[in-house]
């Protein structure tokens, strides 16, 4: 499920896996704002490029794998 981005109001925020570290991130596909959890707001975001560079990775979408909702059958919060 995508959320509208509170930062650019144009992109949508989806859940991604940062493949190299197995971290989950929420990233806007338009402005590349990234959140470490589903608290999507204007305070807690980082730039995707900063997140990847902090981990010694290339700031590219190829580091990410989009996580599809249809494969997520174990959501403890719902
Ligand atoms: Zn955005």
Automatic annotation (TrEMBL):
Top-rank taxon, per record: Bacteria
Name of this chain's protein: Transcription factor zinc-finger domain-containing protein
Native species: Cellulomonas terrae
């Amino acid at each position: 499920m995508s959320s509208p981005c509170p930062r650019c109001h144009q992109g949508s925020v989806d859940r991604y896996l940062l493949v190299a570290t197995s971290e989950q991130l929420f990233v806007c596909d338009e402005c590349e704002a990234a959140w470490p959890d589903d608290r999507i707001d204007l305070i807690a975001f980082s730039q995707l490029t900063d997140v990847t560079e902090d981990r010694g990775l290339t700031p590219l979408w190829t580091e990410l794998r989009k996580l599809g909702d249809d494969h997520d059958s174990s959501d403890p919060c719902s």
